[in-house]
């Protein structure tokens, strides 16, 4: 997917690769990490395993990506509050541990989706 966003008088072009966190894409993603200027890693706030897997993905990103890459950790599906198992504080703590930006989103309602792209573009 490609998108264009104007941020601070500059037009940013985004090329988005969604690997859905699947293990079969792990070796392919290493190649994309090397050329990326920004990486957004999402986990599902209603899934413990989704959150637990982000640690391995963040470790890979730090190993294979450029030192100046902008990394954002996103807790998604915040619209499903009754099914939530991962607290916001847990996401914030993991983000601090890896030195990355943190935000919670809802792809369903659009909460903070634009903000995530604007933040990494800046």
Uncertain stretches of 5 or more adjacent residues: none
CATH architecture: 3-Layer(aba) Sandwich
Name the shape in a single word: globular
DSSP E strands, number: 5
Return the CATH topology. Answer: Rossmann fold
| Count of discrete structural domains | 1
Instruction: Measure the end-to-end span.
Output: 20 Å
Query: Mean pLDDT, as a whole number?
Result: 88
What would your notes on this structure say?
By secondary structure, the chain is of the alpha/beta class. The protein has a single domain, classed as P-loop containing nucleotide triphosphate hydrolases (Rossmann fold), CATH 3.40.50. The chain is about 40% helix and about 25% strand. The chain has a 3-stranded parallel β-sheet, with helices on both faces. The chain is globular. The two termini are about 20 Å apart. The mean pLDDT is about 90.
Short description:
With 122 residues, this protein is an alpha/beta fold.
List keywords for this structure.
two-stranded antiparallel ribbon; 4 helices; alpha/beta; three-stranded parallel β-sheet; 122 residues
Helices and strands, with pairings:
Elements: E1 2-7, E2 10-15, H1 26-35, E3 38-44, H2 48-64, E4 70-76, H3 88-98, E5 101-104, H4 113-121
Parallel strand pairs: 3-4, 4-5
Antiparallel strand pairs: 1-2
């Amino acid at each position: 997917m490609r998108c264009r966003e104007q941020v601070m008088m500059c037009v940013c072009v985004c090329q988005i690769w969604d690997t859905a966190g699947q293990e079969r894409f792990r070796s392919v993603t290493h190649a994309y990490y090397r050329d990326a200027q920004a990486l957004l890693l999402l986990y599902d706030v209603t899934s413990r395993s989704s959150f637990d897997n982000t640690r391995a993905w963040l470790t890979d990103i730090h190993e294979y990506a450029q030192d100046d890459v902008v990394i954002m950790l996103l807790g998604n599906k915040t619209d499903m509050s009754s099914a939530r198992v991962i607290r916001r504080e847990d996401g914030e703590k993991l983000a601090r541990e890896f030195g990355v930006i943190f935000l919670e989103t809802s792809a369903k309602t659009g909460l903070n989706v634009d903000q995530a792209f604007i933040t990494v573009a800046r």
